[in-house]
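Quick one: structure tokens for this chain, please?
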Amino acid sequence: MAELLSIRSSIDNIDATLVFLLAERFKATQKVGFLKAAHRLPAGDPGRETAQIARLRRLAEEAHLDPAFAEKFLNFIIGEVIRHHEAIAEDHQAAENNGPGANKPLLSSPAPSTAVDA
């Protein structure tokens, strides 16, 4: 029973490490998302994604991990990254559209004052 608890403790530590590694990865991909939005690049990059999947499959084979599992895992991460990049691009576009002077008439009169404003 002690061995089981020890192995489970190791698994818990590995899971915690995975969470922190994923957090670091998403911090980096968020920076990429901001750069893509600023340069109006698409959220996805199919060429890079294909290369990354092939690379991860090779690494999985070297590590004696099922390459199909590694590919599914990376595809899930890529999907989340693209979703985040799309949201960043939308926010960036909205900020550009709503910047100083955006959506304001060239000649405007002050809005009438109401009791609620006072």
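The chain has a mean pLDDT of 88.
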